[in-house]
Amino acid sequence: xxxxxxxxxxxxxxxxxxxxxxxxxxxxxxxxxxxxxxxxxxxxxxxxxxxxxxxxxxxxxxxxxxxxxxxxxxxxxxxxxxxxxxxxxxxxxxxxxxxxxxxxxxxxxxxxxxxxxxxxxxxxxxxxxxxxxxxxxxxxxxxxxxxxxxxxxxxxxxxxxxxxxxxxxxxxxxxxxxxxxxxxxxxxxxxxxxxxxxxxxxxxxxxxxxxxxxxxxxxxxxxxxxxxxxxxxxxxxxxxxxxxxxxxxxxxxxxxxxxxxxxxxxxx
Length: 268
Hints:
Layout: E1 2-8, H1 24-34, E2 38-42, H2 51-61, E3 67-69, H3 71-75, H4 86-106, E4 109-112, H5 125-142, E5 148-150, H6 164-174, E6 179-184, H7 185-190, H8 195-202, E7 206-211, H9 226-235, E8 241-244, H10 252-267
Parallel strand pairs: 1-2, 1-8, 2-3, 3-4, 4-5, 5-6, 6-7, 7-8
């Protein structure tokens, strides 16, 4: 396993997001200096990112970019593949394509969590799932060498594809070699998933993992039994990236350090 930390690129507005924020160079240097070998990018609108500066900083620090997270495309701008408005659906798809283009520069994958959207009153759920399927399929086919990872998202933020079983059924229905699944400790706990069983169910397409403590606290500062997640990953010989996705409490520097210190034994 390898360890990454989430960084919100400058297009994400200053807010309490589950990623460290700040200038590109100094912030990536902080992540690398702590001991992380990867940085996951939380983006809102890749067209507003100075991609040259980002690439330069990543190369300077010798960091991997395992994944790009699209959570704020929905969180900040409210865009989704399932919006009843076709113009909004089109803009959401364009943001996903831009994220895939950025990811292709780093050999990264792109997640689809809240970006997929929700069932809404007045729209047949089958139509909603058709829109989501069409968007994911079209985007994945546009970048066949870049992985798309579907993320089960808990009931407080979504109302479809809530758990690993539902999400794996969706992935198998699409049946594309570059569409897989990522899991997240918080979503798994809220949905009451069996950690070991969910990882086994997803094993054939399980490509990325987000780790956080309860209430998105820095790892080791909440009530979750983090060792259960880490032991389950180790037992299945998971060799990909685990990315820390937490609120920056009390601040970014301390959250980066605290999570690393707690997880260090699993990555020594």
